């Protein structure tokens, strides 16, 4: 199932997307998408609604340096345990919403990532049962103010600006995410071309590790790390990240 959040003529709702291309239909879900969704009976063509961020997490937990080649491109070692940092919920935006690039922070980079969306409250869940805690997967862009990341040491400011965590276009609930193609383009030029099979710390291990630190709530998001090839973005450009089996997340960039 493809789960989305949409703006439709009557307001905002969760929805399931059925079909592809011009035939795609959006079926409204009552209340929330966790557990067995209940449908209201309302439906619209996908072209008649606006896709929003597919989930509004209470927290976004990101994993740093989880692809060996990305760690190497910045001269870093791969950490023995997952390196965690938090992005505020106010960083989250949806497809086609602008990444607002502060003009006074120096270099700002895109980072294409696979995102895990949690489906139920969990604490200390073992890796063997991690799949039961996962609602599905979506595409993420861990936008990063690179100069601040270097100067601050702590990454909260560099990763925490409003709009610095685009998510979308929807959540795919039926997916083996262990070996998927991940590509990022800036203005149509391929910049990243990796596979999730190259994750140093794999998805079940990440869910176990993060839930051992903090309780994960329905809708919380874990960003799994980015492959090599990240680079700067400027106002007027557009970033598109595509993950096999999910779709493409596109966001323009504007200077503020």
Automatic annotation (TrEMBL):
This is Fumarylacetoacetate hydrolase family protein. The keyword Transmembrane does not apply. Residues 59-253 form the Fumarylacetoacetase-like C-terminal domain. InterPro entries: Fumarylacetoacetase-like_C, Fumarylacetoacetase_C_sf, Rv2993c-like_N. Residues 1-54 form the Rv2993c-like N-terminal domain. Keywords: Hydrolase, Metal-binding. It comes from Amycolatopsis nalaikhensis. The keyword Amino-acid biosynthesis does not apply. GO terms for molecular function: hydrolase activity.
